[in-house]
Amino acid sequence: MKVQTAPAANTGIESSRSDYPSVSILFIIENCPLQRDPRVRNEAQALLSAGYKVAVICPWGHKSQGFRATVDEILVYGYPPIRVEPNTWGYLLEYTYATLAIFALTLLVLIREGFSVIHVANPPDTLALTVLPFKVLGKKIIYDQHDLCPELLMNKFCRSKWIVPVLLVLERWAYHVADHVITVNESYKSTAICRGAVPQTKISVVRNGPNSPTSSSLLAGQNEICRDSNHIILYAGTVGVQDGLDCLCRIISHLRFDLGREDFRCLVVGDGDALKQIKDLAVHLGVDDKIDFIGWVSGRSEYVRYLNSAEICISPEPATTYNAASTFIKIMDYMEAGKPIVAFDLKETRYSAGDAALYAPANDELRFAQCLTTLMDFPQLRTELGRHGEDRIREELGWEYSVPHLLQAYRTCLSMDH
């Protein structure tokens, strides 16, 4: 999925080109390859455009990539990921292996390329331990908090409550090690202040936002996928325990058996460690013939094909502490494409989507299905919600509005020694 960097005239990038032009930045991500992390890609491209030198350490995108490659003009050092069981011990093995691999590659990059700043994107927060020796060597640390790890892991392993105190200690350690903290929204910022005792002057909010062709370009040349169905409902994103695909299956069951609707198909574009159990649940509920599991779509054009095919997009994350505080990139993509959304009424989801969505009461799956029928039956309402989403992205939430905050975070961090 190729990232298109916003023009400097629209982002304020040009004004920062003279600031610390020789600084080298090393991004570290563990949970996915660079190609699958639109936030880090956008950040890296924005910093490249601002005149910084950028490298990334992450898992391989594919075996042919090798340990050193260039992806969209970004230097990438990769390590082979390992497959683990999606449970506490499996993730402990993954994080231990990744921490050691990342430390070794960080040392290698220091020797071969050099760097002044390490930009650490969680999860996991164990990465803060990885970068500590380099902080001792005088390197600046920026902690980019993508997820609230204690809440995220509790969602995945609700019976493993013994691990929460450890996760809270690791999170506080990450806050403490960082010279500057970047969060994705105000909820995460509040957590950094209240739970991590981070001063507000050390925190920058850099929101997720689409950095791709405008919605009018996206909608050009509508694609005809599943044209045998009157209404196409789309979910695009990760298929993890916390993402609500079990809710989606039950919502589709309500739509079909309680509300009597057969004139639809649901497309699930994405994959994750919960995919098998979600497919099994769909069979158990008798809705497997109404849900098409497409899998991961790597190319932007193919992803856009599925977005274009959708009549309604959904964000079925249930109400949990983690989900209520999180910003979902999928919602931004839906809005950019001018698609109406149905979601549960969560704090940050409502902030992001605004008037582009219908909201069901938290975890009320029948009401969620009823919201779907409302949009299925009223095309004018779909058009109005879609237009609200496009306007919100264009006027407030596009990636170009986040770039100045990212660059200011770097100026603040680097000026500490000046």
List the SSEs and their pairings.
Blueprint: H1 8-11, E1 24-28, H2 38-49, E2 53-59, E3 68-71, E4 74-79, H3 88-112, E5 117-121, H4 127-136, E6 140-145, H5 149-156, H6 163-177, E7 180-183, H7 186-194, E8 203-205, H8 215-218, E9 231-236, H9 245-258, E10 264-269, H10 275-285, E11 291-295, H11 300-309, E12 312-315, H12 321-325, H13 329-336, E13 341-344, H14 347-353, E14 357-360, H15 365-377, H16 379-397, H17 403-414
Helix pairs in contact: 3-4, 4-6, 5-6, 9-10, 9-15, 13-16
Can you walk through the features of this model?
By secondary structure, this protein is α/β, with parallel strands linked by helices. It has helices spanning 8-11, 38-49, 88-112, 127-136, 149-156, 163-177, 186-194, 215-218, 245-258, 275-285, 300-309, 321-325, 329-336, 347-353, 365-377, 379-397, 403-414, and strands at 24-28, 53-59, 68-71, 74-79, 117-121, 140-145, 180-183, 203-205, 231-236, 264-269, 291-295, 312-315, 341-344, 357-360. The protein folds into 2 domains: 8-211 and 398-417, Rossmann fold (3-Layer(aba) Sandwich), CATH 3.40.50; 215-397, 3-Layer(aba) Sandwich (Rossmann fold), CATH 3.40.50. It is built from 17 helices and 14 strands. Strands 3-4-2-1-5-6-7-8 form an 8-stranded mixed β-sheet, sandwiched between helices. Helix 4 links the parallel strand 5 (117-121) and strand 6. It is globular, with a radius of gyration of 21 Å. The relative contact order is 0.12.
